[in-house]
Amino acid sequence: MTKGVTYMRKFVLASTMALAAVMSVLAPGTAMAAPDWENNEAVQGTPPSSEYLICADTIEAKVWVCYEIHGDRWWVYDNDADSASATVEWKNYRGGSLYRQGRCINGHGAGTWASCNKNYYEDSTVRGKQGWWDRPNGSPRTYDREYQFQ
Q: For the whole model, what pTM was predicted?
């Protein structure tokens, strides 16, 4: 076999492998891993007036969640004097795909509001579930209903 033919076979093989690698990344319908969870400890404060908030229409036994429209800020109210922290589990979608996900955790106790300041793309949607997390005794829990906040 000549050197030219051997070189050409190696080139074609390398090119085919490179093309296959690129196509596996670009192929539509290819499953991608979910983004890592962003867990944020909320900062205690006072939410703005209701005209700047979108709130879950149900105040649950343990939590009430609002979203500040012009600041990408979650407000979480702890509604129960137990050992659990009130939370919102949020998901951020871009182009119909999950882009980011996380939790805003109010560990300041019953009767407190606390917030997490996020920065979402303007062309994205944000959904959230109200929940709680008794950290020493278990994993985060949420109520079933998911709300669209943006």
A: 0.76
